[in-house]
Amino acid sequence: MIELSGISKVYGIDRLVHALRRIDLKVGAGEYVALMGPSGSGKSTLMNIIGCLDRPTAGTYLLEGGTVSTMDDDQLAQVRNRMAGFVFQTFNLLARQTAERNVELPLIYRGVPGPERQRLAMEVLERVGLTEWAMHQPNQLSGGQQQRVAIARALVGRPRFLLADEPTGNLDSRSGQEVMVLFEELNREGMAVMLVTHDERIAHHAGRIIKLLDGRVVSDELNPAP
Amino acid sequence: MIELSGISKVYGIDRLVHALRRIDLKVGAGEYVALMGPSGSGKSTLMNIIGCLDRPTAGTYLLEGGTVSTMDDDQLAQVRNRMAGFVFQTFNLLARQTAERNVELPLIYRGVPGPERQRLAMEVLERVGLTEWAMHQPNQLSGGQQQRVAIARALVGRPRFLLADEPTGNLDSRSGQEVMVLFEELNREGMAVMLVTHDERIAHHAGRIIKLLDGRVVSDELNPAP
Ligand SMILES: Nc1ncnc2c1ncn2[C@@H]1O[C@H](COP(=O)(O)OP(=O)(O)OP(=O)(O)O)[C@@H](O)[C@H]1O
Ligand SMILES: Nc1ncnc2c1ncn2[C@@H]1O[C@H](COP(=O)(O)OP(=O)(O)OP(=O)(O)O)[C@@H](O)[C@H]1O
Ligand SMILES: [Mg+2]
Ligand SMILES: [Mg+2]
Q1: Residue A143 CB partners (closer than 8 Å, separation 6+)
Q2: What count of other Cβ atoms lies within 10 Å of the Cβ of residue B13?
Q3: Can you list the residues of chain B whose pLDDT is less than 50?
Q4: Mutate to test the interface with B, among A14, A17, A39, A145 (most CBs of B within 10 A)
Q5: First to last CA, chain B
Q6: Phi, psi (deg, nearest 5) at residue B93
C-alpha cells in the first residue's frame, strides 16, 4: 500500500532543520501501526508526507503502486481525498461551521449530494457519541468534543487509510477507549490505521510499533499482544 | 486566595447547556490542585472563570478578598494579568509571531521595557528546553514544542497562580516529566498551581484532586503521596 524509500524533509534556509533523515518504511493494506517518539522527533512531519499533505525534500514515495513524488497538486489532492482520512494534532476544524458541517466536508469534495451527506455525517457523529452536539460550532464545544468531531470527519468518507495524530490527547480515559474500540472495528473491516501517540497503553492496540528519534526510525517491532 | 460559591455557567438560548452547576470551591495561596473529569464535564469552563477569562451566569467569586463578579472588563484584565498565568488547552499562540515574542506578550501588557522582556523570555524558554527554537513561528514548531511555548508564556510574568489546561497532552513522557518538575519547583517557591489532566500519573503530582461530572464537583480529596 505505501512504500517510502530514502524520504528526507529539511526545513529552513539559513538554519536547516532535518525533520526526517532518509526514512525507509512499508505499510501494507489493513495494517495497524503506532508511531511514537519524543517531541520534535518528526512524527507529524512523517504523517503529513504519508497523507500527501506535504512533500518530502528527497526520496521516493509509492502509494498503491503510483509514484507520489511526481504527481502535481491536483493529482495529490485527488489521491488524498480518495485514500486517506486525517486527524490533525490541532484539529483544524472550520470555526464558523457546525460540527455536522465540518464532518460533511470530505463528502463535499467528492460531490456527494446534500441529504446523503447529512445522513452519513450524523451516523459517524453518533459513533463518536456527539449526536447532541451536532449543531454546535467548535467554540461551543469542549477540547475533547472538538477532537471527536475531527475523528468523525476523518472517518465519514470510509477511507482505506486513517492517519491519526495524537487522536486521544484531549480525551479522558473512557472517551479515549471508545475511540480505540472504533478504530479496531474499522481496522478489522480492512481500513489501515496509522496513529501517533505518546501513550504506551494506546500504542499497544496496534499490531506494530515504530519509534522515531531525531528524524530516524530507531525501532520497528511487531506487537505480540495487541 | 480564591473562593467560589454557587458558581453556575449556562450556555445557549433555546437549547440550554448547564456547563457548571452551583460550584463551591476554595483554593488557598500556594496550593497545588489537579482537576479531572470526563470530556465535556466543565473543567475548561471552570478554569476560564477562575482565570477571569469568562464570567459565571450566577454565583459569587472572591479573589484575594475582592468580588470579581462586580468588576468591569478593565479591572478584570488588570487582576488577570497581575495574578494568573494561563496555559490554554489549544495553545492560542499568535501565528505570525516567533516563540520568543509570544512569550514576551504578558510582559508587554505590564509595560516591561524591551531588553528586559527579551531576557526574561529567553530565560523561561531555556527552562522548557526551547532555546534553539526561540526564533521559530508556531507553524514551524511541532505540537509539543508549541505547547511548551504556551507554558513558557504563562510563567514569564511569575504569576501568583498558574492555571494549566492539559499542559502535557501533546508531550512525550520525558518532556511531560520535565514540565511537572518545573511546576513543582515553582509551587515550592509559593506559586499556586491548578491543572486539568486526564492522566492519573500527572494528577498524582498535586496535593489535592478535584473531580467534576456534568458540571458538579463530585469529589475533592487530599492526595496523601504527591
Ligand atoms: N459556547 C458554548 N456554547 C454551548 N455549549 C458550550 C460552549 N462552550 C462549552 N460548551 C459546553 O459546555 C460543556 C463543558 O465544556 P468544557 O470545555 O468545560 O469541558 P471540559 O471538561 O473541559 O472537556 P474536555 O475534557 O473535552 O476538554 C461541554 O458540554 C461543552 O459542549
Ligand atoms: N515549518 C517548519 N520550519 C522549521 N522547522 C520545522 C517546521 N515544521 C516542523 N519543524 C521542526 O521539525 C521537527 C519535527 O517536527 P514534528 O512536528 O514532525 O515533530 P513531532 O514528532 O510531531 O513532535 P510532537 O510530539 O511535539 O508533536 C521539529 O523540531 C520542528 O520544530
Ligand atoms: Mg506532532
Ligand atoms: Mg477542556
Answers
A1: A170, B39, B44, B89, B90, B165, B166
A2: 5
A3: none
A4: A39
A5: 22
A6: -85, 155
Question: What amino acid occupies position A218?
Answer: V
Q: What is the pLDDT of residues A106-161, one digit of tens each?
A: 999 888 999 999 999 999 999 999 999 999 999 999 989 999 999 999 999 999 99
| Amino acid making up residue A32 | Y
Instruction: Write the CA distances from B2 to A142, A209, A222, B25, B49, integer angstroms.
Output: 24, 46, 51, 8, 11
* Residue-level pLDDT at A141: 94
Of B142, B145, B169, the CB nearest to A169: B169
Which tens digits make up the pLDDT trace of A88-107?
888 889 999 999 999 999 99
Beta bridge partners of B195: B34, B164
C-alpha cell at B155: 510563567
The interface residues of chain B toward chain A in range 106-165, judged by CB-CB distance below 8 A, are: 140, 142-146, 148, 165
Measured distance CA(A69)–CA(B21) in Å, rounded: 55
